[in-house]
Amino acid sequence: MKKFQQLKKIKEIYENGENIIQYLKGIGQNEINEVEDILISYDFQAGSYIQAYSKNKDYLEKYCRSLASIINKFEDVQSILEIGVGEATTLYTLLKYIKNRPSEIFGFDISWSRLKFGKELLKDLNSNDVKLFTANLFEIPLQDSSVDIVYSSHSVEPNGGKELEALKELYRITKKYLILLEPAYEFANEIAKARMKKYGYVTELYATAKNLGYKIIEHRLFDYTANPLNPTGLLIIEKNETNSNKADFICPVTQTPLEYYSDSLLYSKESFLAYPIIDGIPCLLKDNSILATHLLTDYSEYKTKEHIIY
Predict the structure, then answer these.
(1) How confident is the model at residue 47 (pLDDT cuts 50, 70, 90)?
(2) Best label site of 32, 83, 209, 219, fewest CB within 10 Å?
(3) Is residue 244 part of a domain?
């Protein structure tokens, strides 16, 4: 987390309208976008999607209606998860067009600040049944095969070079279908392709999924694209796992079950690691873990008369 020492400088860069990730890649001399770069960039951008929501409402409605038409074809969808949910503008809009609202709705993002805005938006729009939490795309704190439909909307995007790791992790938690709306490198023109590579976007999701032997049931340009230089592609992977699990939280370090210790803490009895819940949002990045071996210890079992000071 060395780049956190640069936050004052990064704030100036953001306020000047410069690209934070490009700056962070430069000081770290990295060819790919690191998780820390993405976290810092998105956290500073928090609130911008809420501001743009009303301006882009018509487009977002069309975009989400089209996505919902795909989801509505699938039967018995009890749970759904948006990865990189951000400020929940896409998730909220999508839920309006899903015929049978799933009983469990999840959304995670690497940025707590974005989720703070997302939680408030959902509250304003009376969608209080959504479970938001922070997580790393590559270390999702959910059980294997636990969510019926996992989908993305340009959230895998900045992880170029890590397509294999991203797909394996998303496939792991998916129970039935993985729907990816991500940069369509295969369908882009040369200018768009060059731009995608410059910004470190994913370029090999389809090829990687094919090499992994996943069952691809649809791959094409999506019906709507906000930016012609970043065309949206649709990739649908079917899993249909028969041995499924509940969508319960697990420790991202040890993959052991997490339980609610209080309204402000999740705890793994097996790993002795605790995770804070801030403003109702579980913080489930590895770096959020707190070693608390004696969280459940009863003080009275250790106290003796000799320890008491009168």
Answers:
(1) confident
(2) 32
(3) no
